[in-house]
Amino acid sequence: MALNITFRQLKVFESAARHLSYTRAAEELYLSQPGVSMQIKQLESVVGLPLFEQTGKKMHLTEAGREIYDYSLRIRRLLEEAEVVLDDLKGLQSGRLVISVATTASHFATRLLATFSQRFANVTISLDITNRETLQRQLENNEPDLVIMGQPPDGVEVEADVFMDNPLVMVAPANHPLAGQHEIPLGAIESEKFVVREQGSGTRIAIERFFARHGIHFNTAIEMSSNEAIKQAVEAGLGLGIVSIHTLELELETARLQLLDVQGFPILRHWYILQCKGKRLSPAAQAFKQFVLEHAKEFIRLP
Ligand code: PGA
């Protein structure tokens, strides 16, 4: 008789086994830690053997755990293959996809689209990169098929799915006196100047809310509508910056910028994919939405 395992149990187990941590699996799958632990307990009871073991603080896979991990990867690959075959049957070889993404999301959205368009070579894609305020207006006019942005907008009815964390971090030039200090109190940065995004940017709104909530005044040195320009300005010493971690790659690797360990940071935001409520998505748009929900994290290179 076949093992009575569910795909859900395998998915949770696969994530916990990959990270060797229930906590990280819970974060990745947006579940609670007890939720993860329950799924794995159920799987262990079906299998009839423990899948993880603990030595000191370290988690390991048992021999049965390694076997199940291997099968879970193979099953996932087969399901992905089935998805491609079914997409073909649904006639996804053609179509048009109109997407708008927040300026900050463009740092990973282009990589996502590149892979998506390899898979759906005949789908024509139109991508608009703009800030939160404009995205809100586009949604009010029901223009794009799908939008990728932080925090869904107020005042427009949308269907939104969260797919990834978006931590905002504080960056300084490598030689800044605060670089390398730990748990810098917020008061210590009140005398600093900031290079910030323009009004209407989601990042800007999140920063203003953060400082207002903590009763801290922040000084703006200069406003810019591009994250790339902000990073260059910070590097050149115009002020400190607060940007999404997804905009930073090379700057940290090459130590041109430093993350500052400031109390209350990172400011936690999330990425959402959304559409106007009740909008009927075309097969191409449905495929893209599913692709983002399932694969977006693979396209993120965190420094
Ligand atoms: P932004 O959006 O690029 O407009 O700042 C990002 C976000 O909403 O977090």
Kindly summarize this structure in a few lines.
By secondary structure, the chain is α/β, with parallel strands linked by helices.
Indicate the proportion of strand residues. 15-25%
- List bound small molecules: 2-phosphoglycolic acid
* Class based on secondary structure composition and strand pairing: alpha/beta
Shape: globular
End-to-end C-alpha gap: 47 Å
Describe the structure.
The protein has ten helices and eleven strands. The longest helix is centred in the N-terminal third of the chain and has 27 residues, at 63-89. It has 303 residues and is an alpha/beta fold. The relative contact order is 0.14. The chain has helices at residues 7-19, 22-29, 33-47, 63-89, 106-119, 132-140, 202-213, 227-235, 250-253, 283-295, and strands at residues 52-55, 58-61, 95-102, 123-130, 146-150, 158-173, 193-197, 219-224, 240-244, 257-259, 267-276. Bound molecules: 2-phosphoglycolic acid (PGA). 2-phosphoglycolic acid binds at residues 102-104, 131-132, 149-150, 166, 197, 201-203, 269.
Layout of strands and helices, then pairs:
Layout: H1 7-19, H2 22-29, H3 33-47, E1 52-55, E2 58-61, H4 63-89, E3 95-102, H5 106-119, E4 123-130, H6 132-140, E5 146-150, E6 158-173, E7 193-197, H7 202-213, E8 219-224, H8 227-235, E9 240-244, H9 250-253, E10 257-259, E11 267-276, H10 283-295
Parallel strand pairs: 3-4, 3-5, 7-8, 7-9
Antiparallel strand pairs: 1-2, 5-11, 6-9, 6-10, 6-11
